[in-house]
Amino acid sequence: MKIWQLNEFNIQNLAIVKKDPPKILNDNEVLVIMRAASLNFRDLIMIDGGYGDTGGTIPFVPISDGSGIVEDVGNGVTEFKKGDVIIPPFFSDWDSGNIGEDGYLSARGGQIDGVMQEYMVFSDDNIVKAPRNWNCIESATLPCAALTAWRTLVTEGKINKNSIVLVQGLGGVSIFAIQIAKLFNATVIATTSSVERMDKAKIFGADYVINYNEHKEWWKNIQRITNRKGVDIIVEVGGSKTLEQSIKSSKIGAVIGIIGVLSGGVAALPIGRVIYKASRLIGITCGNKEELISMVNKFNMSSVRPVIDTSFKFKDLPKALEYMKRGKHLGKIVIDFDMDD
């Protein structure tokens, strides 16, 4: 079989390697033909060695998110059968609750080999069934971006129909956050960078959209929209240049999920305002298997589908990563293992 392997840190050091396909050795194992992967900015950081000692040890198989079809099962497997579409969770060792050190080090595409390989073997408790009627490309978008949005809104934010959610930008996490929030009939305010993207945000489900290039102090718009009450949950992906405005946009006791650092990783924190507002700033590190199952079940009761920007061939992984690095995509970038060469 073919796998992608990172031999030294840097995209240019990715190479396709051939190796024998894995085999089922234990009764609880499942053999999966991998059919698709999707990219996250975390993959770029990992490939560049940006996670240091907590990243992977060279060589390793990159990319955390993927999906495949069950080819064979061990004698003790009852939950899965040949033909099932499955998803390996982002963390191979975080089943429920809050993350611990062991769980953190079990993220795929680093210390644990990623999904860029044609066959993989999993224990039956280390995979999840994909949403019904979703194909592998759609399912591959879920392990990181979608689950990060889910943990922010559902686990930490306790979202409900009365919630007001602020979503920053239209990256992978943010688009899923809009879609998930609307499944709970919450109100969504989105910020984005252009008129065209404002239209897209409304198509995805946002109730209000603010162009942050036109409204530099967009927190004032949010206060007007909410009659000066503020929002309940914030999907904070901006970092240093957005955190203060997020706090100003928030309601007393709001949950601010710290997810990204797109505008910088070091922020000046208005401590007095945080104390006054009893703000709950929570670092979000994706989510666990139990949450992934809950999210899949919610999607099964809806017509939601992921937003796909571009699909690349298996052999074009470096091109896909370079495309993502440019940051012009809207929705998920996916790798289709079945695309003709």
Can you put this structure into words, describing what you see?
The chain is of the alpha/beta class and 341 residues long. It has two domains: 2-141 and 306-336, Medium-chain alcohol dehydrogenases, catalytic domain (Quinone Oxidoreductase, Chain A, domain 1); 146-283, 3-Layer(aba) Sandwich (Rossmann fold). The chain is 28% helix and 25% strand. It contains eleven helices and 15 strands. It has helices at 41-47, 101-104, 136-139, 142-156, 172-183, 195-204, 218-225, 243-249, 271-277, 289-300, 317-326, and strands spanning 2-6, 14-18, 29-38, 65-73, 85-87, 119-123, 128-129, 164-168, 187-192, 208-211, 231-236, 250-258, 280-283, 308-313, 332-336. The strands form three sheets. Strands 3, 4, 5, 6, 7, 14 and 15 form a seven-stranded mixed beta sheet that branches. Strands 10-9-8-11-12-13 form a six-stranded parallel beta sheet, sandwiched between helices. Helix 4 crosses helix 5 (172-183) and helix 7 packs parallel to helix 8. The longest helix has 15 residues, at 142-156. The model has no long low-confidence stretch (mean pLDDT 94).
Q: What attributes does this structure have?
A:
single chain, 341 residues, alpha/beta, Quinone Oxidoreductase, Chain A, domain 1, Rossmann fold, 2 domains, seven-stranded mixed sheet, six-stranded parallel sheet, 11 helices, 15 strands, 28% helix, globular
